Amino acid sequence: MRVEQLRGGAVEAWHDVHVAVVDAAGKLVAQVGDPDLVTYWRSAAKPFQALPLAADGVLERFAITTEQLALCCASHSSEPQHLAIVRDLLAKIGCSERDLLCGPHPPLSESVARDYASRGVRLTAVYSNCSGKHAGMLALARHHGWPTEFYTRVEHPVQQRCLEEVSRWTDLPKHEIGTAVDGCGVVCYGLRLRNMALAYARLASDPPRQFRVPPSAFRVVEAMVRHPELIAGEGRPCTDLMRAHPGRVLAKVGAEGVYCALLVRDGLGVALKVADGHGLAAALALAAVLEELGVRPRPASLGPRPNVNTRGETVGELRVNGGLGE
Amino acid sequence: MRVEQLRGGAVEAWHDVHVAVVDAAGKLVAQVGDPDLVTYWRSAAKPFQALPLAADGVLERFAITTEQLALCCASHSSEPQHLAIVRDLLAKIGCSERDLLCGPHPPLSESVARDYASRGVRLTAVYSNCSGKHAGMLALARHHGWPTEFYTRVEHPVQQRCLEEVSRWTDLPKHEIGTAVDGCGVVCYGLRLRNMALAYARLASDPPRQFRVPPSAFRVVEAMVRHPELIAGEGRPCTDLMRAHPGRVLAKVGAEGVYCALLVRDGLGVALKVADGHGLAAALALAAVLEELGVRPRPASLGPRPNVNTRGETVGELRVNGGLGE
Predict the structure, then answer these.
(1) HEC secondary structure over B101-166
(2) Can you tell me the mean pLDDT for A28-46?
(3) Distance from the Cα of residue B77 to its chain's centroid
(4) Best of A128, A311, A321 to disrupt the B interface by mutation (most B CBs within 10 Å)?
């Protein structure tokens, strides 16, 4: 399977895709390319970085809502509703925007970015697509009485707690998980696609005997599938996919061409990487994989995408070629 | 050879590179991947689209300067000096900006784009990086008495004349050259990297007997190597490469990961494609190939590029792995 950029009927550029589809017992159900490719999980690890909030009683302690939990799992578009929910969560735990250590960046939604740029909005840490995750990490620190300073560092108990959760769900000892610094400054995890897919599959499955799915997983899954508009934002692939199949699919993007999903009813996890890191190609590939797994139809926004030149002429398209097993 | 995006010491994404290095007799001197890969030449064809201006006497007819000819070969940054030269050329041939059929787009230079956005500059056709090429095509039409309307269409004599020139230099019959619509609306050419490299090699070489290099080629080469700042712009790879090795190298970028170069003294042509279309990877790869061919040192801007996250931390780098023949 590759995602091809066509111009006038000929392939001008292409994006190689690697996919692992795994069930909750760890069985590789389908694949493309190398399901054992090691890469960074990036933001597709967010549900697992939010799991300690449910597992450790942080949700109850601070009466964190499903909307706020959804934001902790999100790569949000910096829409006003996203910022408001993060700010409410920060206030609830006695923190402020000044405690957030994520760096600002233009909103991931082009239309939101254009709007803010045209109005001269000053982008601060809360505008980071990761600000919900960071607020969740601050809540975890508050709950356990850990310092809220330097919570992004790998040696901080917040990061160690998240790593422990990642280790548990991916079935990998901590020392087999590579670590590096993510785009927002926290720890990111290097592991095989197969293990990423396993973790997703386990979130909502009849568990194999040796792995008991804790109720905390259901809280995270519920928060995400109930609020597709909070996981990404208007017009973005995660939101479009989850809206198109309510309660049936949970999709989470990661930077540099990573995409993960859970087929809730089938108990299947999907992890996918576009080798060159192309984000739109990853979204189109995920939609194609989900369709092949029975999640039909693809949202219109994730079918072949016209390639429009500066004169407004359609000169080609971006489309998926091939399927699972290719 | 591939260009790797590292994070914390591990490869997170990579860009496959295909290269052909060819001499003026068509001998493949060095290669990476598939030198027979067929792709679109895009803006790296501009020197050959400008050649009819020299060959047909258009330069003399309108007293076109070397700066103006350089702009006809450029993918410029929309700097004020670039716009002024294109406007002067248009005036000289009795045309105006209204005759330009290229679509506008944000300047290819990030700093120029930021500057214009912050000042609310309205981007019109002359701001297109291709406006010099379009002005040259209008000059060609004026000279031959062809209509200036619809000059972008494949059936227009301007495009047929350019295709004839491309056919001549690439050693390919016209019917073996694929055509499609380019980003700016004119015809773009689909052909093998090997033939692109041959065309560049022929521009400034002791010609083999069967191909006489016309004086027109020297006019185009001279205009380009004398004015590196007009071929791209401040801080952009073509300009940096040509400035670092004055008179020794001619470099021309194309969209979607294409890069071509001429080693003027060695009479070698280089054509390169990053399969996924990554532009910065293509520039780093070209600098590495040129270095291996003896064009040393690489400009500092085209060595390994730090990957900086939203907090300003260096979290990895983009760098070339491997060399010619790999």
Answers:
(1) CCCCCCCCCHHHHHHHHHCCCCCCHHHCCCHHHHHHHHHHHHHHCCCCCCCCCCCCHHHHHHHHHH
(2) 98
(3) 13
(4) A311
Give CA–CA dist A241/A257, Å, rounded.
17
Would you list which residues of chain A are within 8 Å, Cβ to Cβ, of chain B?
5, 7-10, 12-15, 38-40, 101-105, 117, 128, 178-185, 188, 190, 256-257, 275-278, 309-313, 315-316
A242-270: per-residue pLDDT in tens?
A: 999 999 999 999 999 999 999 999 999 99
For residue A28, give both structure tokens.
């590789």
The SS3 of residue B324 is: coil
Of A230, A239, A260, A261, nearest to A80 by C-alpha is A230
Interface test with A, best of B154, B181, B273 (most A CBs within 10 A): B181
The residue of chain A with its CA nearest to that of B18 is A13
Q: Write A56-63 long-range contacts (CB < 8 A, 24+).
A: A56/A140, A56/A143, A56/A144, A56/A161, A57/A143, A58/A139, A58/A140, A58/A143, A59/A219, A61/A143, A62/A92, A62/A93, A62/A139, A62/A142, A62/A143, A63/A92
3-state helix, strand, coil in chain B (%, to 5): 40, 20, 35
User: What ipTM was predicted for this assembly?
Assistant: 0.95
| pLDDT tens digits for range B44-99 | 999 999 999 999 999 999 999 999 999 999 999 999 999 999 999 999 999 999 99
